[in-house]
Amino acid sequence: MRLINQIKLLKVLSLVAFTILCFGCKTTAKNKLESEALEKIKTLEKLTDDARKKSIDVAREETVLWFSKEFLKFANWDQENYDAVEKLFGYYQKYEAEKETLAKDLPDFERKKVIQILDKGIEDLENILNGKVTRKPAQKVAWDNITVEKNKLINNGRPVFLHDYFSKTVGAPLTDKNIYNDHLGAIYHTGSHLYDVNKDRPSNPYMLNEDGTFDETLLSYITEVPDTNIGFLLLWNMGVPDWMKKQEPEIEKGRSLFTGFDVDNPLLREVWSKVIKKTGEVTKGKKVTDLGYILSNEPHWFSEKGHWTQKYLEMNSISSYTLNKFRVWLEKKYDGNLKEFNKNWNSSFKSFNEITIDIPMDPAQRGTALWYDWCRYNMDRGIEWFTFLQNELRSVNPDADTHIKIMAKMFIGDHRSHGIDYEALTELTSMIGDDAKITGGRNFRAKQPEKWEKKYAFYWNELAHSYDFQESVSPNKLHINSEGHFLSTSGFRELDTDIDYVRSSFWLATLHGMDASMSWFWARDADGSPEDRLEGELNFFDPALAGSYAGSANMQPHVVNEVSQVMYDLNSFSEEILALRDQRRPLRIFHSETSAINKNHHMTEQSKLYESLYFEGFNIGFATEKIINKQDHKNWDVIVVYKTQYVTDNEFKSLQSYLDNGGVILVDSKESLTKNEYGQTRATKLSASKGKLIYADNTSLNEFKDLAISEVKTDRKVFVKETNGTDWKGSVWKVVKKENEDGYVITIVNLGKNTADLTVSLDGEENIEVKNMMNGLEIGSNFKLKSKGVLLLEISKSSK
Asked: Is 705 in the same domain as 722?
């Protein structure tokens, strides 16, 4: 027995010794990596001092140094708090099974990435100092001195693009330079952005007490914001206090994921009127609203059975207020003709006041009159709700700018029961708003490769497609992505995100109109610990928040550094970027919400057409009934109609009017435009009139694309030829003539999976000069561009 105990003791002692040894190994590895990083910091600091003495701009190196020091601190916190980090990894399904390994490896991963960005920073600055390359000085952002013009931001007399992180570390004061600075961004916001609607969310019904007075604490989150930096104010629609629920038992019927109440409820309207007016009064003229009042966070009202939102209580039923408003809408829509209504619905209601509908609806109803009428009404009530909010705000603050954080997939997705009219809401507000994503990899939940993976290095279509539509609807508005999802989404997160992807995604989005973005998200306090929301037990109504920290930008120094670096580069050439993106859109794709509502895959078909046209070197635009009726037809050369069978009579009339005024329309087949919103065959057909009408029956998508392009009038002088080992193009390019100078500026982004062999030519010139504007080097007219690579080039005829 004694021997057994001795053996057990020896095992325990051996285990302790092994643990100590392992800890010592880990500590040694940590010390080695940290020491290496600290030495490289000294090297870069010395080079930076040398550069300053030569009057070389070193803003980029200052950012590298700042992130390096911060993440060495973060790595130490992560190592000392293994249990907390492991727990946070476990909240994200993708990482749950390997949370122990990831938590253990994270500190050294961060240190190695710090070394990586330091190595690149040292190499870049040495090349500058040695004269091997040149670069344009960074445009430093004066966060307290930015002016807003109708479609651009001006910083010290120059256009500027802004970036920050949304929902920045909760609890940190806006004046904390560790969180609000040139490296992370310094866009201010009102309130603490907590997800506990009972606590620190200003601009919501909790601001108003039952006796009609305002909660002074919540009001202070608005009134005490320093009036220095440009910023935004978010109206938080998540819920209502108990006293409102007692007065109005139906107030949560018809709620949605982030709109936690019935927007048709009279008490809700009364309270919101008081809240938004008070908000507008106390923030009138403040810099913190220069980037607008965000009227809602990710609004939608999906109304169909089986949709993923149903389990989050979205539109599980509707209130009597909503039903009665729908009845009024129907009576107006049918001009009081109950017989026609019953025929359409295949029903036998005796009056409009008796009409009922089951919500959520069976998606098998798609294509019926019942489906169309509800989906169209649901959109119209969304428009009416946001019109109400905006009108109430502007009744006390007439100059208030507004936008809405709408997810781009509400437009490009095939679902249409969501109540979001992307065009109408883009047109309604004074700024373009969205919550758009680009994803650098496959959704981890996908059971098989996603369709885009066959051709492209990352998923770009959602943002490009939706942004080109919004910019077509409102070409002269500031465009703000108030929750950018390029670095992470609920379905995509890579712990070692490729910095080439980071650069190309931000570059591409800016080329498509993005003036300011707030990435999801920054959740580190200055000491390295996660922000307050991510401590303790995480049990949020928001299904994505708990898992947002794992694999996020907060663990990736190379990613956040690259975001800042690409913003420096975009802002160094901000005039050129604006000139490239703000060009005429000569080809317009006709968009009809009527077909989108009725057809199962209308937007998928539209996306295929959009993609086929995307790599031809010109900006793509869209036309709708409103765009045709309101905008100058000289803004485009041709409208193409593709697989659009269902259009209202007014949509049809707008197309005919365009032809009557000499327009050009290309239609894919005689099936398009043949039905009204209820699937009834239209008796009339388009007539060429004074214009040109082309039907492209029995053509393939590529043939249809070529026909469309042949109708584009262009005096294009610059051309790009691409070979990449596939049968499709992968490099998107835009070109513009230099203002008051000979030559052209061209930007190219390789979205393809392979390296592209590119040849640039200038019409009429055998010999041309092609210079990389980012480093001043001549590269010749034939060059290679790696997958996810970005170039900004100057092209001119050779002087030799």
From this structure: no
